[in-house]
Amino acid sequence: MNSTASIHFVFALLLLATAARLTGAELRVSTDFEGGAARVESVDQAARVIRFMPGGDPQRGWPCWWYLRVDGVAKDERVTLDLAGSDRPTRNNGQDTGKPLAASWAMPGRATFSTEGKTWQHTAPGKKEGARILYEVTGTGGPLWVAWGPPFTPRDTDALLAEAEKLSPAAKSFELAQTLGGRPVRGLRVSAANAPKPPGIWVHARQHAWESGSCWVARGFTEWLVSDDADAKWLRANAEVFIVPIMDVDNAATGNGGKEAAPRDHNRDWDDKPVYPEVAAAQLQLRALARENRLDVFLDLHNPGPGDLKPFFFTGPPELLAEAGRVNRTNFLATAQARITGPLALDPKPRVTGPAYHPLWKQISGQWVNANGNPHTVSICLETSWNTPHSTTDGYRAVGRQLGQAVAGFQRGKSTPR
């Protein structure tokens, strides 16, 4: 073959390769669905590269959440998602900073994807290139959903509650409140206790809407609680448990970050005049339990910073607790340490939420419960790592199951009377 023929042959191969890559048709990106959010910068149809930033309004929370759908990807075809941090000024400590959020909050080491929008898995580790990160996803011939982490939307709450009610007669769904946007905030009450006023346990998640992993921890807790596990049966028979999988429903539905939203976010809203109806409704129920001297455990579920590679607890300053509360919290932490063992193992050292943490630290839910609960109440926040290979739906659900076992173990072994 002469040189001219060789050039023509190579050119023909390139054309064939390009044609093969385009058999998946034009790449189309959409976010017009529950929880969807992204700002698409460009779509390179030839290179099959989608360049984008997180979506969301910074006035409605940190713009680090992103969740998009990609159509037009052929079977076995690779597409690249090229992500930059948001360039929009954001808020922190209750004020506009005039600066963008650090990009690391939007850049998990591995993105999350699904081929049917229901089951979620990690991509291969992303490749950092300067201030951007590139994730590769391989198509199956249908749509691809790709997100910061495993999405959990209000529809997922509905499905979880319906399944729990099906599995256990002790489980009954309820509506906590209607949001400012007119959406229901739904929860689950689980109890088979014969006593008229059993110990009360309150669990809620996602006061910051971008922290979707916290919902999967709540799901794991719920699935365990309505299961045939012996400790779950005991807890159902000896306590009244309330679970709210999503507190910030509006922002979870619209794809906004929630944290540091104006005028304040859900977890800075716990004072005498809450902005959010769901916070006011939760306060009402918690006060009712406290009036009956039966608010035993309050658990607030979150995800932490990108560099926090082990789950950990936030607590309030110990000097603000009564002796019964300090003893119970110490015992609860020890029980949780023995139960939350992996694949996301608990960091043995809790962190303190106090004056140095945030200007509105007294309006954080855990501290509000310390101030308004009973002397024996354990009020605590669990931060479950999102930036590890085990930060998957299975990993999160395992933490939720182990957290449930910790609650049951604590309640069984409690030596300090209420």
Describe this protein's structure:
This protein is α+β, with helices and mostly antiparallel strands and 418 residues long. The protein has two domains: 16-147, Sandwich (Immunoglobulin-like), CATH 2.60.40; 154-413, 3-Layer(aba) Sandwich (Aminopeptidase), CATH 3.40.630. Helices cover 29% and strands 24% of the residues. The strands form four sheets. An eight-stranded mixed β-sheet has the order 13-14-16-15-17-20-18-19, sandwiched between helices. A five-stranded antiparallel β-sheet has the order 1-4-12-8-9, with no helix packed on it. The longest helix is centred in the last third of the chain and has 21 residues, at 393-413. The chain is globular. The model is unreliable at 12-22 (pLDDT under 50).
The second-level CATH architecture of the largest domain is: 3-Layer(aba) Sandwich
SSE succession: HEEEEEEEEEEEEHEEEHHEHHEEHEHEH
Q: What characterizes the major β-sheet?
A: 8 strands, mixed
**What is the straight-line distance between the termini?**
91 Å
User: SS-based structural class?
Assistant: alpha+beta
At CATH level 3, the topology of the largest domain is: Aminopeptidase
Which residues sit in consecutive blocks of at least 5 with pLDDT less than 50? 12-22
Q: Give me the side-by-side strand order of the main sheet.
A: 13-14-16-15-17-20-18-19
Please give the domain count.
2
| DSSP summary, beta strand count | 20
Hey, roughly how much beta strand do the residues contain? 15-25%
Number of helices: 9
Helical content class: 25-40%
**Global geometry:** globular
- Give the mean pLDDT: 94
**CATH superfamily heading of the largest domain:** Zn peptidases
CATH class descriptor name of the largest domain: Alpha Beta
Q: What is the CA-based Rg, rounded?
A: 23 Å
